């Protein structure tokens, strides 16, 4: 099925409905925010047929966005320098488009690159920290594509923004209280810190979606518990299986044919894991990672990986949570990262990064048209990045896996993998 390119209807800038107070005009990013330089939080959300015409929906979305930006005021600002956002109310870029296609047909027959048709332009060229695109399907369906500067928020912060915008748009009461800038917890980046911005992978990158339904997840958990791993989570068993099969695929294609030294990197939301916990709507990047290096066949056995993921998370929470004292925490985190890099500096190490959107509340974002019928991360242009998200029903997991083309060809045929999921 040929996917038609949407027709752009309008482009404009939406400014906050109220001016940002002078006391809040300068927003300092933290050292962890700085580590996300060059990335966007890119999301596309699809909604079924809605009530009302496009004109009334358009005006409602713009009005509610303006009101929401008053609370999420850094998103309407511009970078003043490498560590400071000037909250000058210049606004967010807002694009509207239409496409002569039916939403359900698109969702049934699209390929992953087709999602980019419904995403706004690259954000960096305009200086805007938030780009949105609303696309109207001929059947009445709607797609909302978003690019948010990752230095301002992680997926939890982006989810809070989308949900509050949706709630305001639906005409409901919402308590929006975005926590203050994170430099009160994490120090600002030192002048000496230089970050190499991400460069899109120039090889043949392929991203595909693998679906683990709730029944298969139960079987996968049982496989882990039979090897004495107690109460593994959905994310842990899926990450372990995907990592095992991806490393195996890369090793089969290597010139030596032996297992390639690799690292499983798991991104962790710190909000509920520190003592005391931070508010749910704490805005910024409140995440870190822990690493599991592997170099032996025994280390990529499925039960061993699940056990490692579980044990490392527990150790991570015990150390990071109890060390949450600003600079002391940062020193601990960077020390751990340096130790991992040092342990692997004599090898060419493949890194597989897992990030989880599960339990993010994105499927609860109701603009007045009902909950989303599907949503997806967009714009993953980095090799070996795996994003895990809830299925719409909530019990399963959709795994968006980005691998080099030849490695994907081996990975997607792995018999062990396909016992527990199917390729969409």
How would you describe this structure to a colleague?
The protein is an alpha+beta fold and 424 residues long. The protein is 29% helix and 24% strand. The chain is built from 10 helices and 16 strands. It has helices at 31-34, 54-71, 103-109, 155-169, 214-225, 234-253, 302-320, 327-343, 405-411, 415-418; strands spanning 7-14, 26-28, 40-47, 78-81, 84-86, 92-99, 130-137, 142-149, 205-212, 262-269, 287-294, 350-356, 374-377, 385-390, 397-404, 422-423. The strands form 3 sheets. A 7-stranded mixed β-sheet has the order 11-10-12-14-15-9-16. A 6-stranded mixed β-sheet has the order 1-6-7-8-3-13, covered by helices on one side. Strand 14 (385-390) and strand 15 form a beta hairpin. The model has no long low-confidence stretch (mean pLDDT 88).
